[in-house]
Amino acid sequence: MAQPEKVGHGPEHVEDAKSIEKGAPPAYSNLTALAHAAATEKAYTPFQAVQVYWQATLWCLFMCMGALLWGYDSQVGGGLLSVPSFRRDFGFQSGGQGDYILTAQWQSAFNSVSSVGGMFGGLSLGYVSDKLGRRGAVAVCCIVSITGIFIQFFTYPHRNAQLVIGKLINGFSLGMYVSGASSYCAEVSPLALRGITTSSVNLWIVLGQLMSNGVIEGTGNWTSAYAYRLPFALQWIFPVLLLIGLPFAPESPWWLVRKGRKDDARNILVRLSNGTSNVDLQLQQIQDTIALEDSFAANSTYADCFRGVNGRRTMIACMVFVLQQAAGVVFVLGYSTYFFELAGFADNNAFRLGVGVTGIGVAGNLINFYTVNKVGRRSMFNWTMFASTIVLFLIGFLAIPSNNQSAKWAMASFTIIYNFIYQLGLGPLGYVIFAEVSSAKLRSKTVGIGILVNSLCGMVMNIVIPYLVTPNEANLGGKVGFIFGGLCAIGTLWGYLYIPETKNRTVDELDTMFERRIPPRKFGSYTIVEEDMSTEEVASS
């Protein structure tokens, strides 16, 4: 394959050095070299990039495998509550002879404790990843995960607290898995594949949910303890596979350069492209981008994530997950089986349809691999947010006639439509945007904070929504669509005002645009100046 051509100079916007705020650190001087490297990266199409960087693509998909456990755990927790043998071994018999019941406090504990662990796991990723590298952080995840699964598997009946501890420990690893996968993909992938690999984090999550639903359906009617122990044990497969593959996985070249291991970084770059790309230019781009970021801020602590321009970047990284929850994903997808039962389907068929809804989500994720580069992050996120608003209001209106069977059928249908829309845009793009808007220096910390917010919002929704939906509480049922429809409408406006277009932008370009405070809606059309700005020019300004 011929090497992509470099583009020449010819900026459309001229950024005067005098526009830099007084008191700001000196700007990095070699913008032209960065522009040349960016032009080389942008010359690849996704198909060409896969041909050249096929090893990088496969390793990114491999490192995302841990995200499958996030999706699996989120589904298996609620699914086991419907398994009779689980309720028997961890609940009590109502009236001494009725069905077995799991108390509300234990239900809440089993459903939310993984999210608590995920918050601390995501937050700790920045420290662990910066110390041990991206591979080292995943290795820690695997060991912690294996330990948490071990505790769950060997929990004997009525030792509920032990099961909670096991889920808490495993949840810690899940938060690190998702954060680490996003950081790794953003740093190892070439520009043309960055959106695809980072959005594949969400695909693995949905595949985990699909796998969980299938396992629970297959073992749920068993009368032995293995009806719930086997779903726990199957989780061991994935951390073991990761541990086997980690010694062969390439480390992030960005991390290696920051640690002063430039020769190792160069070897990794040669390996990732099979020696067919301009490795010297790529290495120089990484070094120059790091120098550029160092000129903006000397430190890289968690506190720096909330200062100045980085505070704005962290806000966006967190808000994409807040908006996911505001879009009602826990409400619609968590109660899809309930809507199918309302429509008149038998319990078994309703559960199978719930599995089908997850399958529709997988299809939406796969289509996103095309639209993430073709349409862009900002446009797809905002349009799917708007479409979700419409669907949520329709579910709310259809819930008003309580005994209309046609309306119940329509509500069930809209859960399928909603999941396709969500997984086409909001779901995967959250993981793309929060990994891309963070600076390379603070990426592991920023994505960890994003996962903390994601876990916190998910936990809150899992606690609040049952009180809104269940008959003996607010009993709103599908009318909750009005609440989330309103929140989604507000989120659509926020997304238009604050979410930037990061498609086809290199790390240094995003750094420059954020530092120049370019309005988010102009990120897609803004042209970075391809000129040298000497330190003397900046100083004299």
TrEMBL record:
Keyword Methyltransferase: no
InterPro entries: MFS_dom, MFS_sugar_transport-like, MFS_Sugar_Transporters, MFS_trans_sf, Sugar/inositol_transpt, Sugar_transporter_CS
Reactions catalysed, as given in the entry: myo-inositol(out) + H(+)(out) = myo-inositol(in) + H(+)(in)
Keyword Membrane among record annotations: yes
Topology versus the membrane: Multi-pass membrane protein
Membrane-crossing residue ranges in chain numbering: 52-72, 109-129, 136-155, 232-249, 316-338, 350-369, 381-400, 412-434, 446-468, 480-499
Gene3D superfamilies, per database record: MFS general substrate transporter like domains
Pfam annotation, one family: Sugar_tr
Subcellular localization: Membrane
Keywords: Membrane, Transmembrane, Transmembrane helix, Transport
Domain annotation Major facilitator superfamily (MFS) profile: ranges: 59-503
Family label: Belongs to the major facilitator superfamily. Sugar transporter (TC 2.A.1.1) family.
PANTHER family to which the protein is assigned, alphabetical: ALPHA-GLUCOSIDE TRANSPORTER, PUTATIVE (AFU_ORTHOLOGUE AFUA_6G11920)-RELATED, PLASTIDIC GLUCOSE TRANSPORTER 4
NCBIfam families noted in UniProt: SP
Protein name: General substrate transporter
Organism: Rhodofomes roseus
